[in-house]
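Records of this kind hold a single protein each, on a pair of labelled lines. With that in mind, the following record should read easily:
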Amino acid sequence: MRSIPRRIAAAAVVAGGLTLLTAPAAHAVLDPIGVATCLASSATEVTALVDPANPGVPAEVPAMGCLQP
């Protein structure tokens, strides 16, 4: 009677392991030319980091948009 739950648990572990083994890796490939042009164009936005009208509101870092695939 105890071997049936163990077999079910073992089958679930094996099935989960095989699913994780065959799943593709999740990663993004960045275009180096696109990132370089984005960084060059966002270099002029560094002066906008501190907004004198709203000093308490954090500004978006200009280069963060370049890292999106």
